[in-house]
Amino acid sequence: MIDTDAQLAYGIFWCAYAVAFVVLFYMMKKLFRFLPLYGLRTLLLAALVALLLTPVESPELANWWIPAWLYGGYEQILGDADAAGKAWFNLGLAGLVMVLVWILDLVRYRLVSR
């Protein structure tokens, strides 16, 4: 059983992670503003979202989620390919979803810009 302090630490981690992601996202958006193609800018931002916001469920505790890049990288370094594969699968799935969203955004951009 997880105690209250661990639950509080888990909540604080995700709040700090979310705030840090929002700051990073807007910094990268300002940096990518100089790229000439709208599609390239949004593709890079979509890749950033998929990479940093994809979670994977912890095998140790039910209903605890870990950033997939962090879990997958850690397990890959430790040599547990099965556990790392779970994280990389989630990242791949999130990447496919973000490619679909990106394509729909390009269609929206094309229709609005006419």
UniProtKB/TrEMBL annotation:
<protein>
    <submittedName>
        <fullName>Uncharacterized protein</fullName>
    </submittedName>
</protein>
<feature type="transmembrane region" description="Helical">
    <location>
        <begin position="87"/>
        <end position="107"/>
    </location>
</feature>
<keyword id="KW-0472">Membrane</keyword>
<keyword id="KW-0812">Transmembrane</keyword>
<feature type="transmembrane region" description="Helical">
    <location>
        <begin position="38"/>
        <end position="56"/>
    </location>
</feature>
<keyword id="KW-1133">Transmembrane helix</keyword>
<feature type="transmembrane region" description="Helical">
    <location>
        <begin position="6"/>
        <end position="26"/>
    </location>
</feature>
